UniProtKB/TrEMBL annotation:
This is MoaD/ThiS family protein. It holds the Pfam family ThiS.
Length: 84
């Protein structure tokens, strides 16, 4: 099972209470299931509005169950934010 780092930004970081943490997951869907299990409540609500980068590549509209994770990879959790 790949080991990945999930990094939280802005509102996701505040809701998780940490900047990043490790997970074991083969797909983005599995990683997010782990996140929801570890952080029920506010972070679950924030995740519904987030976009995701996997190893620097935008996930976009792809199904999270189809996005494979590589060992040592990174998932960035990006809530919507204003500014530029």
């Amino acid at each position: 099972m790949p080991k990945v780092t999930v990094r939280y930004w802005a509102a996701a970081k505040a809701a998780a209470g940490v900047a990043e943490e490790p997970y074991e997951a083969a797909t983005l869907a599995e990683a997010l299931d782990g996140v929801r299990g570890r952080h029920p409540g506010e972070l679950e609500r924030v995740l519904r509005r987030c976009s995701f980068l996997v190893d620097g590549d935008p996930v976009g509209t792809r199904g999270h169950e189809t996005v494979r994770l590589a060992d040592g990879g990174t998932v960035e959790v990006l809530p919507p934010f204003a500014g530029g």
